[in-house]
């Protein structure tokens, strides 16, 4: 599974509608409204690299209210659960 994190700048007056439109796209697992330089963060989960382009360039960028995007491809995931497992002494 390939994960891409997409930073989205959106029309501020339409953020809820833009977020809902993005969340409805196939391949989008989650959308977060955030503070800072960007308005939304979308998590894309697909099987192949070319599917990222299909989701982002062909669909997400065309959601009304999306002004710009910046896509980051994740190559390794860390979570608290993973880190605890890695350092566990097996004394559970």
TrEMBL record:
Residue stretches making up the Transcription regulator AsnC/Lrp ligand binding domain: 7-76
Domain of life of the native organism: Bacteria
Cross-referenced InterPro entries: Dimeric_a/b-barrel, Tscrpt_reg_AsnC/Lrp_C
Protein name as catalogued: Lrp/AsnC ligand binding domain-containing protein
Source organism of this protein record: Nocardioides kribbensis
